[in-house]
Amino acid sequence: MTRIAAEQFVEILRIVSARIDEAREHLAELDGAIGDADHGRTMSEGFAAVVRDAHEAARRGAGAAELLPIAARSFLNAVGATAGPLYAGGFAEAGRRLAGRAALADADLLVLLAGLGEGIARRGRAVPGDKTMMDAYGPAIRAASAAEADGAGVGEALRAAARAAAEGREATRTMIASKGRAARLGTRSLGHVDPGAASAAVVVDALREGYEAVLARRRTDR
């Protein structure tokens, strides 16, 4: 079992932030079609703030799980748009589920994913089918849970989650938005990928990448 210390968890968050930043312009284009084109900027700024504050907290000796409520506050303070309260709720729920852990077990990343998605769902009152980020997080959580129940390792479960999130993202093309600004478009939202689902798919795949990077570094250090 891999133990993920606070510094390693920060590196996972740094990979998530980097992948979101790389997708920034694409997310803005998606949002421009059915929203106000700010989703790429807000997600990039939110995760940059998370990494900055988590790094500082880890340097001061905070445990890995303690970084999650810090991430919640950081994202909310950095992002005033809709994504701010949603991701704050997600990080806060993940923090509650993992409270007290100075280091995370590898399987705790699946707990984190479930808490993040379910905290977002509760705050946004959204479910898969509403054409929101839950159309990526919902399938990802279910796929990870099913893989784990079948005896898959954490890496395989995260890969299954990433595939399901990508499929969920693409499925939003066929949906009519019922939440957020896009809901005002009605049937005109058909044919467009939801930007929140797109960014969620990036986050899930980046968690997979970050975990694999932790494993690779451990093998190198042996």
TrEMBL record:
Gene3D superfamilies: 1.25.40.340
GO cellular component: cytosol
Entry protein name: Dihydroxyacetone kinase subunit L
Keyword annotations of the record: Kinase, Transferase
MF GO annotations: glycerone kinase activity
Lineage: Bacteria, Pseudomonadati, Pseudomonadota, Alphaproteobacteria, Hyphomicrobiales
Domain of life: Bacteria
InterPro entries: DhaK_L_YcgS, DhaL_dom, DhaL_dom_sf, Dihydroxyacetone_Kinase
GO biological process: glycerol catabolic process
Family matches, as SUPFAM superfamilies: DhaL-like
Chain ranges of the DhaL domain: 7-209
